[in-house]
Amino acid sequence: MTTETRSLYSQLPAIDRLLRDSSFLSLRDTYGHTRVVELLRQMLDEAREVIRGSQTLPAWCENWAQEVDARLTKEAQSALRPVINLTGTVLHTNLGRALQAEAAVEAVAQAMRSPVTLEYDLDDAGRGHRDRALAQLLCRITGAEDACIVNNNAAAVLLMLAATASGKEVVVSRGELVEIGGAFRIPDVMRQAGCTLHEVGTTNRTHANDYRQAVNENTALLMKVHTSNYSIQGFTKAIDEAELVALGKELDVPVVTDLGSGSLVDLSQYGLPKEPMPQELIAAGVSLVSFSGDKLLGGPQAGIIVGKKEMIARLQSHR
Fold this sequence. Notes:
Elements: H1 3-10, H2 15-20, H3 25-31, H4 33-54, H5 64-76, H6 102-113, E1 120-121, E2 126-127, H7 132-142, E3 146-150, H8 153-165, E4 169-173, E5 179-180, E6 184-185, H9 186-193, E7 196-200, H10 208-214, E8 219-225, H11 241-251, E9 255-260, H12 278-284, E10 288-292, H13 293-297, E11 303-307, H14 309-318
Helix pairs in contact: 3-4, 8-9, 8-14
EC number: 2.9.1.1
Function: Converts seryl-tRNA(Sec) to selenocysteinyl-tRNA(Sec) required for selenoprotein biosynthesis.
Cofactor: pyridoxal 5'-phosphate
């Protein structure tokens, strides 16, 4: 070690001497003694590294309190910063998704300020169910018999499969084995749910007879997956939910649909491409339909499953 290096090391202050300085009193009051000491130890290590590498002291060594204040202030700031969405994607999943109406924001704030009847039934003076209020509204707008709400649509699909088809086969068109953002893949979700994927048809063409030939004594579900983030054009063929439901009734196999998002309004009347609508799928006889609450309803992130009461009951008991 050179004389110069030894001299630089000697200029580094002891932590207890720094803490006795009046400028550190407010920092300790604000951030706590332990956190301030931890940061000072980290900064001393950094300073020693700089000395070893460049034979100089970091510039902030001239004012330790100021540097500690700056670092702790930045650390205390929320990682979530307001931005302007110029991506062209209205509901951007990486930018907080749907903006909430002021009435909704106020309702959330009110619910966080005091106890609420989340799972308590005032009429029966006993435990209720947290899905009840939302389920009634969802049934009203989709025509379903019952509804179930989870964290996101990926969780909804996983629950739907695990509760109704674990240990059995699920028949899906090869052209609908999608992957969406976050590496959410239908084959992977099926494995996690304990199902066996039975893919039918080809990438561009799947017929009703493909499903019929795939059904056996171990088949639990016929599944449709909305390919919302891509399309196959040209020489194509797919059967819709109504046709698949008719086949399912004939073979005594329920049909479920991962809608992803879809729409509650027929957008074609406004000159936009028509998206599948959950109320149409329910009317067609689909047993369970899952979709994303924030994308479809403009609410907070949620996975929503609507459908037949007995099927929803199996999901509720599985959670």
